[in-house]
Amino acid sequence: MTDGSPRLDELNDRSREVFRRLVEAYLESGDPVGSRTLTRTLSEKVSAATIRNVMQDLEYLGLLNSPHVSAGRIPTELGLRMFVDGFLEVGDLTDGDRDKIQETLGSNSADVPALMSSVGKALSGITSGASLVLTPKSEAPIKHIEFVSLGVDRALTVLVFADGQVENRLFTPPKGHTPSSMREAANFLNSLAEGRTLSELREVILREVEKRRREVDEVARALVESGLAVWNKDGAGTDRLIVQGRANLITDPADEAELHRIKSLFDDLERKQDIAEFLELAEDGEGVRIFIGSENKLFSLSGSSLVVSPYMNADRKIVGAVGVIGPTRLNYGRIVPIVDYTAQLVGKLISDRG
Fold first, then answer.
1. Taking the CB of residue 141, how many other CB atoms lie within 10 A of it?
2. Do 117 and 247 fall into the same domain?
3. Which of 30, 33, 87, 285 sits at 20 to 30 Å (Cα–Cα) from 19?
4. pTM, whole model, 2 decimals?
């Protein structure tokens, strides 16, 4: 809770129960909750008028909001944060959800990006939200590098790693490149790359390009530097972030405001040249973290919530994260154990592969 915000211990027992029941009803239905609905659920038998007075007090504290003059109340972002911190009961993972996640991660595929994409699809399907999976940077030694021209302004970098992984990455080559300049650049890189990781290769190349400027023609050197930039941006570029299930966030295709909100959310994501922020959201501590509405630094204008958890390698180093985006009325009690379990299994998978 932020400074000056109401605290849970400042509410009396009746206010706490009204607040908890109202938020639970809202998260289940997505609709404003009225006093008459609450009279049927409270442990204490009180009148609808008494409940309305309590709701007015909670609204004054900034915990509830009334979307329409005559309608019931819904929790504000502040109210949802208080509920998540003080009342949220995290359920156990169901056998069905556990089986679906294990089935996805049971593959023996050596293609880690493809496996992570399957993880994202499973998360999206199970939660009916959009999933985010930040894949780990490959730190395996490089075995071979090749450049493939796809046109005047498009080329492909093929990276073959010593552990058998193969990654294909698109980049924009410098003007004037030729097949011979691409071969020359690849030969230059391969003479330095074997046995080194991408991070190590970057440092060596920067030194070697400077030292051997006269040995590598201008176009080939620019190609090397262009390709290097694609591989080694902080966070390794947006190709590390896999997004699945965008359509799940659109509950009413006829609602232009909602369509605009969802479009803005993903436009914001796709504009991110550096996705370190996503990992930063998960790195402040082990386990699952919940970001509600404007608390979410990635999608502060989306009106959405993000449930995210980091995963670790065998050295207990955080190397990636998995998460689910949905409306602020997410079923947090169900989503949290799903994200947590998925992160643990992904971490084990990464650790087992060295």
1. 16
2. yes
3. 285
4. 0.70
Query: Are residues 39 and 49 in contact, defined by beta-carbon separation less than 8 angstroms?
Result: no
Cα 13 from Cα 36, distance rounded (Å): 19
Query: How far apart (Å, rounded) are the C-alpha atoms in residues 308 and 324?
Result: 7
**Which residue range is the domain that position 328 belongs to?**
95-137+238-352
Separation of alpha carbons 54 and 349, rounded Å = 50
Which H, E and C letters describe 80-136, residue by residue? HHHHHHHCCCCCCCCHHHHHHHHHHHCCCCCCHHHHHHHHHHHHHHHHCCEEEEECC
Total count of residues recorded for the chain:
354
Q: Residue 16 is part of a domain; what is its CATH number?
A: 1.10.10.10
In this structure, the answer to whether residues 43 and 33 fall within a common structural domain is yes
Q: What is the dihedral of CA 95, 98, 100, 105, to 10 degrees?
A: -150
Among 39-48, 267-276, 281-290, 308-317, which stretch is predicted with the lowest mean pLDDT? 267-276
Give domain status of residue 198, yes or no: yes
3-state secondary structure of 169: strand
Confidence of residue 1 (pLDDT cuts 50, 70, 90): very low
CA angle 263, 264, 266 (to 5 degrees): 70
